[in-house]
Each structure stands twice: as structure tokens, then as C-alpha cells.
Write a structure and sequence with these properties.
Blueprint: H1 8-13, E1 28-31, E2 35-39, E3 43-48, H2 61-79, E4 83-92, E5 95-98, E6 104-112, H3 120-125, H4 131-147, H5 152-155, H6 160-173, H7 184-200, H8 202-210, E7 214-216, E8 226-229, E9 232-235, H9 243-246, E10 247-249, H10 250-263, H11 267-281, H12 290-307, H13 316-335, E11 343-348, H14 355-366, E12 369-372, H15 373-381, H16 396-415, E13 419-423, H17 429-441, E14 446-452, H18 455-464, E15 493-497, H19 502-506
Parallel strand pairs: 11-13, 11-14, 12-13, 14-15
Antiparallel strand pairs: 1-2, 2-3, 3-6, 4-5, 4-6, 7-10, 8-9
Length: about 500
């Protein structure tokens, strides 16, 4: 849109004299379907368009003022450094004045401007979205969700009826894509999955509500709405205009990030992020609804891209590219709903034997869920993961509770199609036998990976360990003992010498 076609206010906002501070000319205007954003150098100003799309209503000045205030309030949760204030714009004659006296004719959100190179999408493209950064993101988002508000009204958005209405609406809005980027088979099978889930898993959704996992989330936390600025991760541009998009399951939020990484063919990174986030929150049960939300986020991305195909103003070359992109997202949405063969892998070995390092490596290879007993134990005790546990945390009773929960999670998730790695010592035969029996009852494949290393290596590893949630120290090793594997256990056991190259040794677990 040329300057001549812009509204008079926006035209004046491109003039340096409009601002009470120095600007970097020329002032850039970024236009989305719902707003104008003006980049002045140090600050960005967002003006909402007077539109009503049903799911979004900015049609009156009072509504735009309200949603500007909401945008500021909600985004200060994840990006307080960026969202500064809401300012009125007054008009005298044909001139507009920022924060002027007189009656307001418009409102703007004033934000700190930051470089586009800070966006996580840009970091990814430069190969700088590293494992430590994604683990940091997992901690930031887990803390964001822990502090997010919930109440009876918010939890009401977690009912099957509310969730289903939005999912079914997506299917109805994309029927015209069948025969184009979407196939009839993919649509039918994706819909069959959600129909079956809503019909058969009512109790699961009720459990999500009962355990307060429906919260005032971000609602749009994909990689392009995350930035690394001044060495801090910022979650910005959350959904302020629509409650059903924001009052959602925490799994809805993290599904954006996982789907974004999967769509970029980096399932190793999405797996690492997922395991780090779930370990922080202890919400392993949430993995049962995650495929629904992964499919939903991919489907919406496909839907929005598909809308370009019916726009006569879009060039054919752009439409071809959009069609290919939509097809990829429709297929990904379908893939998330396809049944998988679950299995259980038990780690076994003394402290320092390399169990967690091996489990982490294997999880990335297999797309597996890694559940560490140290995390389970501390979540059961209601204590922070990084806190050091007292002797009370390691009583025989607490240890049994930890292994009971570990096994319950392993069997539950494997029955849903996940490969689950139970990362614990499994030093006692009764603990291993219970897992073998449960796996057999549920007809789930099971393996035991026994990690070993010489005692001096174990001691050295434990002495050097830092920034880890495990409380194990080298002085505990003399008290530890591995029960021998019985004849009945032997067929399940793979021996791993963790002082040697693990890649070759792990090949036998990759089928």
C-alpha cells in the first residue's frame, strides 16, 4: 500500500515531526491484516485497524482502547521490556498529536523496537537455535505457565464442547482445499482421530481441567513470536483479542514450538525442547492430549495458507508456493494423528554410569519421552528440581512411590504410542520385574539398557557433575549395589559400556 492509500493518521505517523523523540528516517510501516506497526528506530508503535472479523472486534474506539490495554497487560507477562505504555492520539484540525491534550481519536501501543535478527526464526535460519537455548526456552515457558492465571471461568474453556467446536470449525473452513493441498483421506482420518478422542477420552479432558492445566496462556507462542534480546528470552505478541485462543491447555501453547521445529525437519530439537519442558512442569500426563494440539496448530497453519489460493490478487507463482506449503502442513497435521507402536525402555545402572546421558541421546534418536526418576521424585515431594533433597526424599517409601509413578507414566504413555525411556537406577530386581510384568500385560515391547563403567570413572563423573537435578554424590557409591539380572530378565537386557562409543552400541535399540 502506497503512502497515498494509507489512512491520514498513518501517513502523519510516517513523519519524523510526529514524535517527541529522535527517529530513524525513513519510518517503516509494517502492515498486517489487523494492525499497522511503525518502526521509528528506538520505538515501535502499533495501531489497531477498525475491523470486526467475529473472532476479533476492533470496530469502535472504546474496543481499540480496551484491547490496547489488554495487549500491554498480557504481554508484560512474557516481554515487559518490550511493551512500554498505551498512548492516546488527539486531533486538532487535520493534525494528529501523539499523547496530546484533548479528546482521543485513537490509541497506540508503544513498544521498544528490537532487531529482527533476535527472532527465534532468524536464529534457526542462522543455525544458532542451540540445545542450551531451547532448554532455556523450556524453563522460561514453564515458569510463564506456572504463573499464568486460572479460575473457574478460564477452566470452562477446557471442556470437550469448547475444544471440539474450534477443531470442527477448522475442518468445515477447509473443505474447499480437498483436491488441492489437502486430500480427502487425510481430512477423513484426521477428523476420525479427533472424533474418537472427544468421544472416548472425556475423562482425560476433565482431568486437564481438574489439575489446573487450562490457563491464561500466550495463545500464539510460535518461533516468530519469541526473541532473544539482551541475553533474555522474550515471549511477545500474545493473543489479547480472543479468549478461546488464550484460555487453553498449556499443551496447546507448547505445540506451536514443537510443530514449528518438526515442520523445519528438526525433530531432534523439538524432542529436546519437549522433554525439557515436561520435566520442569511434571505434566507428563499432558502428552496424552499433545497430538491433538500438534495437529491443530499444523492444521491452522495449513488453513491460513490455503486462504491465499482463492485470492484473485495473489500471483500464480505465489499461489503455487502457498499450495505446496499448505500441503506440507495438512500432511503434518494428519501425521500427528496416526497410531504409533509404543514401547518402554528401562535404564539401569549405578549413579554416574551414564544413564541420563545415554537416555538423552537415545530420546533424540527415537523421538522418545525421557522421564528421569530424580524429576519424578522431586515433583512428588513438591520441591523445586534444582533444590537439594534431604534424607526424607530418599526413604524406602519415597523410593517406592517414585518407581510406582515412573512405571505408571511409562505404561500410560507407551499405551498411547510413545516410546518412553524410564531413566532410573533400576538396581533392584523387584522393580525391574514389575515393569516387565506390566509391559507384558499391556502387550508393550520392553528393553533394559544396563549402563556400566569402572568405579574410578563413576567417581570422577559424580565429582564433576554440576547444574544437574540429581543429588547423587561420589560418597554414595559404596552404598549402591546392582542386583544381578535373573535368567527371566536376560532376554530384555542390552549391556552398554558408557566409556565406549555409544552410537554403535545403541543401534540395537533403534528398531
Amino acid at each position: 500500500m502506497t503512502d497515498a492509500l494509507l489512512p491520514a493518521l498513518i501517513q502523519q505517523m510516517t513523519e519524523p515531526a510526529f514524535y517527541p523523540h529522535p527517529v530513524q528516517a525513513p519510518i517503516q510501516v509494517i502492515q498486517t491484516h489487523i494492525s499497522y506497526v511503525l518502526l521509528t528506530g528506538d520505538y515501535a508503535y502499533k495501531v489497531k485497524k477498525p475491523l470486526n472479523f467475529g473472532f476479533l472486534d476492533f470496530s469502535t474506539l472504546a474496543k481499540r482502547q480496551h484491547f490496547c490495554a489488554e495487549e500491554l497487560r498480557l504481554n508484560q507477562r512474557g516481554a515487559a521490556e518490550l511493551y512500554l505504555e498505551v498512548l492516546p492520539i488527539a486531533q486538532i484540525g487535520d493534525r494528529f498529536h501523539l499523547d496530546g491534550t484533548g479528546e482521543a481519536v485513537e490509541y497506540v501501543v508503544k513498544m521498544q523496537q528490537f532487531p529482527q535478527s533476535s527472532l527465534f526464526t532468524e536464529l534457526f535460519d542462522r543455525g544458532e537455535l542451540t540445545a542450551p537455548l531451547l532448554e532455556q526456552l523450556a524453563r522460561v515457558l514453564a515458569a510463564f505457565h506456572a504463573h499464568a492465571e486460572t479460575n473457574d471461568y478460564i477452566r470452562g474453556f477446557g471442556t470437550v464442547a469448547k475444544i471440539r467446536a474450534a477443531i470442527d470449525e477448522n475442518y468445515e473452513q477447509t473443505l474447499q482445499s480437498v483436491g488441492g493441498p489437502q486430500t480427502q483421506q487425510q481430512l477423513d482420518e484426521t477428523r476420525q482421530y479427533t472424533d474418537r478422542l472427544f468421544a472416548e477420552q472425556q475423562a482425560l479432558f476433565e482431568s486437564r481441567i481438574a489439575h489446573n492445566w487450562i490457563r491464561e496462556c500466550h495463545g500464539d507462542v510460535h518461533l516468530r513470536n519469541i526473541a532473544l534480546w539482551h541475553d533474555k528470552i522474550l515471549l511477545f505478541d500474545c493473543i489479547e483479542f480472543n479468549e478461546p485462543f488464550r484460555f487453553v491447555d498449556v499443551m496447546f501453547d507448547i505445540a506451536y514450538i514443537i510443530m514449528d521445529l518438526d515442520a523445519r525437519d528438526r525433530r531432534d530439537l523439538s524432542n529436546l525442547f519437549l522433554n525439557a519442558y515436561i520435566e520442569q512442569t511434571g505434566d507428563w500426563e499432558g502428552l496424552q492430549v499433545l497430538p491433538l494440539y500438534l495437529s491443530r496448530q499444523s492444521y491452522v497453519r495449513a488453513k491460513v495458507t490455503s486462504f491465499l489460493l482463492s485470492d484473485p490478487a495473489i500471483p500464480d507463482a505465489t499461489k503455487q508456493e502457498a499450495s505446496a506449503t499448505a500441503a506440507r502442513y495438512y500432511r503434518l497435521a494428519w501425521e500427528y494423528t496416526q497410531p504409533q507402536q509404543g514401547r518402554v525402555i528401562l535404564m539401569a545402572g549405578l549413579s554416574g554410569s551414564g544413564k541420563s546421558t545415554t537416555a538423552r541421546q537415545l530420546a533424540k534418536q527415537l523421538g522418545a519421552v525421557q522421564i528421569r526418576s530424580d524429576a519424578v521424585r522431586k515433583h512428588l515431594a513438591g520441591m523445586p528440581l534444582e533444590a537439594h533433597g534431604s534424607d526424607d526424599l530418599y526413604t524406602a517409601e519415597m523410593t517406592q512411590k517414585t518407581y510406582d509413578r515412573l512405571l505408571h507414566l511409562g505404561i500410560t504413555l507407551a499405551a498411547q504410542g510413545y516410546t518412553v525411556i524410564l531413566d532410573a537406577k533400576y538396581d533392584r530386581q523387584p522393580l525391574r520385574q514389575a515393569a516387565i510384568e506390566q509391559a507384558a500385560t499391556h502387550q508393550l515391547p520392553l528393553q533394559i539398557l544396563h549402563c556400566t563403567a569402572p568405579l574410578p570413572i563413576l567417581q570422577e563423573r559424580l565429582q564433576q557433575r554440576q547444574d544437574d537435578i540429581s543429588d547423587a554424590t561420589a560418597d554414595l557409591l559404596p552404598q549402591q549395589h546392582m542386583d544381578d539380572f535373573s535368567e527371566a530378565e536376560q532376554p530384555f537386557v542390552i549391556e552398554l559400556d558408557t566409556t565406549q562409543d555409544l552410537e554403535a552400541q545403541l543401534k540395537s535399540t533403534n528398531h
